[in-house]
Specification:
Blueprint lengths: L1 H18 L8 E5 L5 H9 L4 E4 L2 H14 L7 E4 L8 H7 L2 E5 L2 H14 L3 E6 L16 H8 L5 E7 L12 H8 L5 E3 L6 H6 L4 E4 L1 H4 L2
Parallel strand pairs: 1-2, 1-8, 2-3, 3-4, 4-5, 5-6, 6-7
Helix pairs in contact: 4-5
Amino acid sequence: MISENVQRVKARIDAACRRVNRDPAGVTLVAVTKGRPVEDILQVLDTGVLDIGENRVQEAAKKYEEVCRLAPAPQQVRWHMIGHLQTNKVREAVRIFSLIHSVDSLRLAQEIDRHAAHAGKIQDILLEVKTSPEDTKYGISPEEFTAVASDISRLSHVRLRGAMTMAPRGLSGGLARPYFRIVSRLGQQVVSMGMSDDFEVAIEEGATIVRVGRLLFEA
């Protein structure tokens, strides 16, 4: 089932790219495995999808160890932190994740920089932009992006790759478009936006990373 679901999602990614004359190779599919067993992750990896997204550091750490033990080529797996990151979890996040999507403040970036320096690592991050008025959403305002990005660029062990956003809860399809468009106008090379209900619109608005969970794992 997972293999067939992956193929269906990839076909939808290809179709969305064709609609706006984009190369599908420019869109990375991140399989969101929150709440899913390691067996499901291994099946996803077998399809050639090597980008795994997790929402919680503690859950990701357990799966990371298992995947490192069981996957044929664990060094090829790229782990993405896509949930809210607390400062007391940064050390472990730096150990596990290739890309942290949810950096919502300069202070958090500075904490990541400090732990990355101790680990001898340059940590790739995305700056989370709050385009929704919901209190449950995190991030800086679009107007703050340039200034905060400039401050982050001075950190020696953090590499800012681009921006991330989430549309308001409950919106799907074209209703999410205005929120994605705000971030696409920031002109970043890497833009993480779009989930199961709206990833095609996100691609049409310039997303280079889409985060899909339910469509990959449910019948």
